[in-house]
């Protein structure tokens, strides 16, 4: 089932979140809703729930993790959401 109404996806056991036709996150619906790993998924859930912002500490931790792992640009190339991603913009600003 493909849906554009996020609320309908909540009834599925497993979901795949797509951005521009690329899967950015997939797995058990409850796990993804409780702990979304991809920033696009996080933004979708915030929009659904009406939640403002994201904990800055988590953003900083993710930025540090990516910086330590190697090339920021390589990490950004792998994600189709990178040019609109708050975390990616933060990483580029730090580099």
From TrEMBL:
Gene3D superfamilies assigned to the protein according to its UniProt record, in alphabetical order: P-loop containing nucleotide triphosphate hydrolases
GO MF terms, alphabetically ordered: ATP binding
Top-level taxon of the source organism: Archaea
Domain Oligopeptide/dipeptide ABC transporter C-terminal, residue spans: 24-88
GO BP: any one term: peptide transport
Keyword Transport: yes
Record-linked NCBIfam families: oligo_HPY (TIGR01727)
Entry protein name: Oligopeptide/dipeptide ABC transporter C-terminal domain-containing protein
Lineage summary: Archaea, Thermoproteota, Thermoprotei, Desulfurococcales, Desulfurococcaceae
